[in-house]
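Progress report, Aim 2. The chain analyzed during this reporting quarter is listed below.
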Amino acid sequence: MTNTFKIYFLIAGLTILLAFLQKLDKAKQIERGKSLFYKKGCSSCHAETTKKLDFPFQRDREIYGREWVYQMIWNNQLLRIKDIRALELFKKCYNTFMPVWPNMTKADIDAICDYVDSFPYDPNSKDNLERKVK
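Predicted structure tokens for the chain:
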């Protein structure tokens, strides 16, 4: 076996191992997000994929951007003043008050979003079409 061949197999093996470890990390992240989703009370108003009292927030990081999502969690009341999209969503949810979480870390918010994003997403569902803002 030539050295080139050995290197090729070593790289292939490391790539497979890395993919496996990333999948394990992602599964842990989703499980952590699920725990936080219920522990922090998100489930009181949000369902994972459909509207409950408020819209699901699947793919919000892709739609609005990560920083926007962080601001929405940390202080949605202030964001509604600064961002018309946040105000429009608030109005579409019957002006429902959402608690602010100024001490929630970006890692916790990302874990919750990863959990919600792990469910099948239908951009054409009634709830997802209704929550769209310009």
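The first helix runs from residue 3 to 39. The CA atoms of residues 89 and 95 lie 9 Å apart. These observations will guide the mutagenesis work planned for the next reporting period.
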